[in-house]
Amino acid sequence: MIGWLGGAYLWVLALHIISVIAWMAGMLYLPRLYVYHTEAQPGGEFSEKLKVMERRLLRAIINPAMIASWTFGLMLFLHLGAWSMGWMHVKLTLVVIMSAFHGYLSRWRKDFERDANRRSQTFYRMMNEVPTVLMIGIVIFVVVKPF
Ligand code: HEM
To answer: One cellular component GO annotation, for this chain's record (predicted)?
Structure first.
């Protein structure tokens, strides 16, 4: 499989970076909406507006962008034969944690949807930092390739 993308490699890399930017934009913003949501009166106008924003952000941007990031990323992975690269193992581990965090964001959205959130604002403020830290690690491993 190594080199199978041929001249399309750079196009796939560009598509990977574009989809990763969209995924990260949503992952960085959604927990911030949850911070605001803890301040809203359940059933009130602000809360209902936040529910629509959260649902659209997750379904229209974050979910498709994650699928595209994985698809293009795995194409690059096969092209490079990246299983032999140490940095790639660390990057993939961090990306798997990012994907699991995506799953938690989705679960928490459903709690807000049902007016059933019981987590505090402090909790969401802390969770808000998780994708930032993961993203910094991923970019350092993929660009600097420390090992
Ligand atoms: C979803 C699963 C992912 C897979 C399987 C994957 C895999 C890859 C592979 C194999 C490359 C090519 C590396 C090279 O050309 O040297 C790459 C490039 C890149 N990836 Fe990912 N990636 C994923 C997600 C992410 C995420 C979440 C980020 C950022 C938060 C990211 C950021 C980058 C960047 C910035 C590059 C360009 C590096 C360069 O050309 O120097 N990737 N990725």
So the answer is: plasma membrane
Q: Which of 106, 94, 103 is closest to 132 using CA atoms?
A: 94
Q: Which long-range contacts (CB under 8 A, 24 or more apart) does 115-119 make?
A: 115/42, 115/43, 115/47, 117/34, 117/37, 117/38, 119/38
Q: Judge whether 1 lies within some domain.
A: no
The token pair at 130 is 């998780």
Q: Which of 16, 96, 101 to mutate to test the pocket of ligand 1 (most atoms within 8 A of CB)?
A: 16
Give residue-wise pLDDT tens across range 35-84. 999 999 999 999 999 999 999 999 999 999 999 999 999 999 999 999 89
Does residue 47 sit within a domain? yes
Closest residue CA from atom 2 of ligand 1: 70
Instruction: Please give the model's pTM, rounded to 2 decimal places.
Output: 0.94
How many domains would you assign to the chain?
Answer: 1
**Residue 74: which domain range?**
6-143
Residues with Cβ within 6 A of ligand 1? Answer: 13, 16-17, 20, 24, 69-70, 73-74, 76-77, 80, 82, 95, 98, 135, 138-139, 142-143
